[in-house]
Design brief:
The chain is mostly helical and 326 residues long. The protein contains twelve helices and four strands; from the N terminus they run αααααααααββααβαβ. The protein is globular. This is Sidoreflexin.
Length: 326
Amino acid sequence: MTQALSKCEKLPDISRPRWDQNTFEGRMYYFFSTANCLNLLASNSKLETARRIVIDYKQGRYDPDMTVDELWKAKTLYDSAYHPETGEKMFILGRMSAQVPCNMLITGGMLTFYQKLPHVIFFHWINQSFNAIVNYTNRSGIHKQDDQTLFLSYCGATTGALSCALSFNYLLKKWKKAPTLLARLVPFAAIAFANAINIPMMRNKEFTTGIPVEDAEGRTLGFSTVAPGHAIPQVVLSRVGMAVPNMVLGPVILEQISKMAWYTPGMAAPLQTLLCGFMLAFSTPICCALFPQKSSIEVNQLELPLQDYINKLPHPPKTVYYNKGL
């Protein structure tokens, strides 16, 4: 909207996303904006300007001539670069907007150089190191992980990915008539396996101390150890889903391209990388939007002590909400 803030009957509420997060479309628009790799090009001065606009607006100070669109652009830029809880500027490679360009290069390498042992080790190590940077940069909340947990998660995911990749490669070499496409799909299997290790390890405290559950008004009603059993599989599915188009469809497409007369082996790396970049640009925000950030669970599915506590409240809710994480 080009309307000036001074002419708004009701000022925008930037404490919530611009789009309705109860719909898949709204969540998708939100993640397309925050994961936009063009946000990485913003200079430090532009980021500081966006930060000042957001902070001042929350305190009731703003330029009356500023338009609604300009306010939301500043908020989007702020969300893409600053930690949502500490307000500190995040390391550039750990930001959501770095996901597509970084994963494009890493995945392109994994899918191109998947046969020789040194290449497999190098690219899976690079991939899990990048994941560790993302996890460390975005660590937050009541279950903020210590460095030891992050390190163990990193080691577990790296070992799991390498074990899976090397085992499948070994089995395929034994299977002399194995289709070449199966070998191209080994990196996807390794990534899916690593995610199944990494995310639960990173969030292991949630299973013992629980995560906050809230009513529709945002009031915390207690901590549930049942909710993580719903939240963590959703995150794992989202992460694996992001990899499906570029790590499954990509190799299938390249397999067909490699049969064409004009194709040469030297084209594999750039073609695979470009395919990955194109698919990740869509799969990253779409898969982040698969499940609501504030997911819901019926009270009768919670642990009995928490159920009893909630049911004794005045006007007890039938449904509560929790932050599933990313």
